[in-house]
């Protein structure tokens, strides 16, 4: 992906004189192109949301377990047939699967996600209970991942000593290889049990969110760093960098003025994925740090076959992915206006 | 004089020196016949002296509880978290194994076990200030017996057995059944039989499941709740209706209880030893030594009316429908080695499907003694022969079974890993141990899952194994159904005991169950905490106190 993006750019650089004319011709319809671009991305986003909802519905429908029987059984060891019938009526499971799909879809379009069978709350309420702690954790983890990545990339590129540069390049694979639950347990054992610096339970203190955020950030920064390191390496190998250097630019000027800007695009894509992952993928961190949140709630919903809650969560997580990616798609032309010049060009 | 020690002698001496303590402890832990007959009593190791008032008890549990509505309670965690706010008609004393008055100051029944009357104590109020009257008791039992279709409240799985009506006459509430239920008095003490205020009874299933809507008359009141994370309870001022015989008869000793979910099993002991929790539930066997060595309490509490840990073998499953296969599985577990090597003395080998301290348990351990030779013969007779890879197969199909796990009993994991290895090696059976809650949920209703694990603290063997809709066997074998009828009709405790003895025999004879270790809920506790337990293994927060 990265190679192709930079390769496209090199091709564009080489073909610049020829394309320049076309670009001039297109200046007048720039706003139209931008509008078409935005519209196509919005349509794609809606389609993705619909597909995500439909796929989850189909997947749940194919489960061998009837969520209503599951709900009625609980752990009491007894399933009461009358209760099952009553629950089927209430949750719409008396309808056939196709009718149920369209009825539920109709409700979703109107913003009604239904009731959670396990918690008894509305799905919206369940999600709004679970979302704030996860969003706080995700935001902090994202910032931490960004910070760690920046430090790694800058040190690997501009580090004074060769051993330091080689050392920091080893960090991303290490971060990627260390399982989050293991790192979390080690960190809690040291910081909470030995040094008594943080509580084992979330107590509202800054440290109680910073520590899980950093644990969560490490593997994310690994993906981020690896992509950016590769991208930086590729840009450094480009001919135009030789030209810049030949003009007498210093290493810092080359790095911050030319390399970072040209290498940032793949990083932006990864950032989108990271944000999406953070919203739905915090289950391990939340479990180890005994935090409530989207990950734990979704895990419980899946365990209890709480179909409406699972669908609600998936829809919200898909929406986050879609919105973030939409924003990134819209940011691309700002970062690299040539995207608008190439009909159908995908971002890196 | 100098005596040289050769290598053999050195090894002998060394082995004796290092081996003796292990041998001695093993001898202490196990009776001469290789199987203990009783679970070790929970050694009381907490502070002594008069109870101390005040303080906050931090308790860590294994799982969050989704709904706090009575009919939706089931797991141990749900019983623990709702316990502090509960009152019941009667109290079942787990140590004396007798009923004691609570909300009902007097009670009685007819010989046919179809009419049960309770004289309601005066002066009890719910935490919203409303009075707990005979009428409110009647409304609670109406909802247990009939459910409420409009509110989508299901029936109470035990109270609804033969429920006919509730009558109120002055202070006396009488529950009338249309068929006998000898177990009714025990059923009114179950965690899902707590009496709630009218405001809660008027709510839908979903609304009634929200913690803040559960209004009880117990010694604590919910102060705050974080979904999926924890709850805080404060002492209820003015509480003066403790169960008869309770050491404490006034308000609770503790000011506050903080109930926290700590799902990661590897962190529970650390949380306890670093003094961040006072009591941790679900201590894994591997951590018991650390807790004891650190001078903390290890409280293993066995339910006095419950079952051992058992696996129900589904009679309609393609593998376990064959009695010979079921018998082979039953005889294919070395329970002494299981307890010794995979677990700890807190989980001794069982004597029956009933826990050894259940007064109705009889020693049937000879019925399921470890005999791998017999198991292999039975499998051969059933047509399952070993292939080149050592796994048995019949008509091209391998003998591959699966079993779910439960977060409510931490000893299950090591136990089933041990059993899987033993079955693979000794019997040529592949066993997938599925540590996946979704799979456990599926197992509740899927006959393709051949083995279902469970344990319960007040067991009706009839209801668990032969009632319509039972999730243990997913079937009702006729001989067990007949015994269930006799269980319900038993006139008194003596007759009930007779039936339970026959039920135990029938369950083991038909190889419907594998009993594999005695049930105990294992808690780690600070040496400063005084903690006892209720009949259903829930901590008795009301009588708990902390050394200042």
Task: Give your account of this protein's structure.
The complex is a heterodimer of chains A (348) and B (548). With 348 residues, chain A is mostly helical. Chain A contains 15 helices and no strands. In chain A, helix 7 packs across helix 10. Chain A starts with a helix and ends in a 13-residue tail after the last helix. The N terminus of chain A is likely disordered. Chain B has 548 residues and is α+β, with helices and mostly antiparallel strands. Chain B is built from 16 helices and 23 strands. In chain B, the strands form seven sheets. Chain B has a seven-stranded mixed beta sheet. A four-stranded antiparallel beta sheet of chain B has the order 4-5-7-6, with helices on one face. In chain B, helix 12 links the parallel strand 17 and strand 18. In chain B, helix 10 crosses helix 12. Chain B is globular, with a radius of gyration of 25 Å. In chain B, 55% of the residues are buried.
Structural class of chain A: mainly alpha
Q: Gap between N and C termini of chain A, in Å?
A: 6 Å
Strand order of the largest sheet of chain B: 8-9-10-1-11-21-12
Number of helices of chain A: 15
Number of strands of chain B: 23
Shape of chain A: flat
Strand share of the residues of chain B? 15-25%
State the helicity of chain B in percent bands. Answer: 25-40%
Shape of chain B: globular
Mean pLDDT of chain A: 78
SS-derived structural category of chain B: alpha+beta
Biggest sheet architecture of chain B: 7 strands, mixed
Radius of gyration of chain B: 25 Å
The low-pLDDT segments of chain A are: 1-27
Summarize the model shown.
The complex is a heterodimer of chains A (348) and B (548). Chain A is mainly alpha-helical and 348 residues long.
Key features?
A: 348 residues; mainly alpha; 15 helices; 77% helix; 0% strand; flat; B: 548 residues; seven-stranded mixed beta sheet; 16 helices; disordered N terminus
